[in-house]
Amino acid sequence: MSAFKSLSIAGAKAFTRDRAALFFIVLFPLMFLVIFGLLFRDSGTDKIKLAVVGDGPVAQALKQLPVVEVEQVATPEAAVEKVKSGDIPGAVIENGTDVQLRFAASDQNKSGIVNGLVSSVVDKANIAATGQQPRFSFQPSQVEDNSLNAIQYLTPGILSWAVASAGVFGTAMTFVQWRKKQVLRRLWLAPVSPASVLLSRIGVTIGIAVVQAVVFVGIASLPMFGLKLAGTWWLSIPIFLLGTLAFFTIGMLIGSFAKTEEASTAAAQIVVLPMAFLSGTFFPIDRAPGWLQTVSQIFPLRHMNDGMQDFLVRGKGIEALLLPGGILLGFTLVVGFIAAKVFRWEGN
């Protein structure tokens, strides 16, 4: 049996026998996917609530809108009171040809939506009242698949975070333990090439990442979550592998200078946790301030998230591989070169 095969089998067995590693690398991130998937399963189906006084053409048109839930109120005073109390974001008071909108400005997003909805309905009512046909036609349609839901955005981000955690924590911890137990020293003195040691560890890291991907996509594809992969999902495989290698090099770098398991765990936490929050794993990074979005570009997880979403959700073509793939490859080469230079086979 070759040294590469023996080391790969030994690494795989060590991982499967470590219950703590199995929990934190596979089950712990999976819990986030399940919890967020259940929490946001019905997101996007919420309706805008409006209090309506009167029963004219504007009120009737609002009742026909699928995104609006109308609550009929008897008096303007009662409708305004509901808005002031925070029960409803807006009140439409229709009295003949006079239409008033009273809204709460405390929620800028909802007030903008309410203003736009009511303004649109009033404009259509005005055009209908003139008896003329609209001059411009309006044909909205979404660019994503019709089955789009929250799980299709959650799965790529949380899967990438799980792969990052496994790559950084698993690699760093393994090298530190091997150095403390003098396994690395024995391998260095044995007729085993450094390439076999390195490639076997890379093989174990990729194997764990593949298991994570199969489990995560399988769970997310259950009917209760409803993940639907885009037609170009297979193009995410190069991004997935390059991202795994990038996180392996980070783990190798940490494992090169950390002397104890505690030190490697702390260093990995400092790297992985902020990277996850700043890379769009748990919330859309495009809602963050501009300078924070710029900072996030230095993290490989940001580019892995973007690349995975491009192919798993947005169905982009092969040309979208160039940017995230090139950055992840460059990151892997640079950090891998540094890690190889500072790597130590023996402890001090």
From TrEMBL:
Membrane-topology descriptor: Multi-pass membrane protein
GO cellular component: ATP-binding cassette (ABC) transporter complex
Protein's UniProt keywords contain tRNA-binding: no
GO annotation, biological process: response to antibiotic
Lineage, opening ranks: Bacteria, Bacillati, Actinomycetota, Actinomycetes, Pseudonocardiales
Name used for this protein in its record: Transport permease protein
InterPro entries: ABC-2_transporter, ABC2_TM, ABC2_TM_bact-type, ABC_2_transport
Family according to the record: Belongs to the ABC-2 integral membrane protein family.
Keyword tags: Antibiotic resistance, Cell membrane, Membrane, Transmembrane, Transmembrane helix, Transport
Positions of transmembrane segments: 21-40, 158-178, 198-221, 233-254, 266-285, 321-343
Localization terms from the record: Cell membrane; Membrane
Tree of life domain: Bacteria
Keyword Cell membrane on entry: yes
Domain ABC transmembrane type-2 as annotated: residue spans: 111-346
PANTHER family: DOXORUBICIN RESISTANCE ABC TRANSPORTER PERMEASE PROTEIN DRRC-RELATED
MF annotations from Gene Ontology: ABC-type transporter activity
Organism: Kibdelosporangium phytohabitans
